[in-house]
């Protein structure tokens, strides 16, 4: 991810504190920043793509080779690997590979799926947080444009329309209002 996007994300993190205090955010996207942030968002979305089932099964089969269990038949292994692959269905391939590699280096026996998930959940959640932050950064910039000062003429025009609407609603008979709601 480009350094500038990382810098904007870091600023956006501080903006969380500013938002909770009722202060305006600091992060601003320039015309040059917006395409970089959009590309970074697309890359993160792509990196969140779940691993295809056949690839997940292959990664798990490779892990199983490191932890042989003589009492399990091939049919039992097939069922176990399918169950584990189902447990990992939301995981991207690189996170599954990294989690299996981490367990292979640290584990002593064939893991429970929860033990594998311990190695994978953190990186997955971080990617999801990064996606939300990038999306929020793009949205906050859009809102900032929408929050530009409104002229007095525009305010009075909208006020007149709201007043007309309020008078129109007030003139409705009570039976009509009940039927409408």
Reconstruct the topology from this structure.
Blueprint: H1 3-20, H2 33-47, H3 53-66, H4 74-87, H5 93-106, H6 113-146, H7 152-170, H8 174-180
Protein architecture, described:
There is one protein chain. This protein is mainly alpha-helical and 181 residues long. It is 75% helix and 0% strand. Helix 1 crosses helix 6, helix 3 crosses helix 4 and helix 5 runs antiparallel to helix 6. The protein is elongated and about 80 Å long. The chain starts with a helix and ends with a helix. About 3% of the residues have low confidence.
Keywords summarizing the entry:
mainly alpha; single chain; 75% helix; 181 residues; 8 helices
Q: Class by helix and strand content?
A: mainly alpha
Task: Point out poorly predicted stretches.
Answer: 143-147
**Any idea what the radius of gyration is?**
27 Å
Counting DSSP H or I runs of 4 or more residues, the number of helices is: 8
Instruction: Please state the overall shape, judged from the principal axes of the Cα atoms.
Output: elongated
How far the N terminus sits from the C terminus, by CA atoms, comes to 51 Å
Overall helicity: over 70%
- DSSP strand (E) fraction? under 5%
Main sheet record: none
State the total count of DSSP E strands.
0
Give the H and E element order: HHHHHHHH
The overall average pLDDT, rounded, is 82
């Amino acid at each position: 991810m480009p350094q500038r996007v990382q810098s904007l994300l870091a600023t956006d993190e501080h903006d969380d504190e500013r938002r909770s205090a009722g202060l305006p955010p600091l992060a601003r996207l320039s015309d040059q920043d917006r395409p970089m942030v959009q590309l970074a968002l697309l890359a993160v979305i792509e990196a969140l793509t779940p691993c295809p089932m056949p690839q997940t099964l292959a990664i798990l089969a490779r892990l199983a080779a490191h932890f042989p269990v003589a009492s399990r038949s091939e049919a039992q292994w097939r069922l176990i690997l399918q169950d584990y692959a189902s447990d990992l269905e939301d995981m991207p391939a690189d996170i599954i590979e990294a989690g299996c590699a981490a367990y292979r280096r640290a584990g002593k026996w064939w893991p429970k799926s929860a033990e594998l998930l311990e190695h994978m959940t953190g990186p997955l959640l971080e990617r999801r947080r990064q996606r939300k932050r990038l999306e929020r950064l793009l949205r906050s910039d859009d809102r900032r444009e929408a929050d530009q000062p409104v002229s007095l003429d525009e305010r009075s025009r909208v006020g007149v329309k709201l007043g007309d609407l309020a008078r129109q609603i007030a003139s409705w008979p009570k039976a009509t209002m009940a039927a409408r709601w």
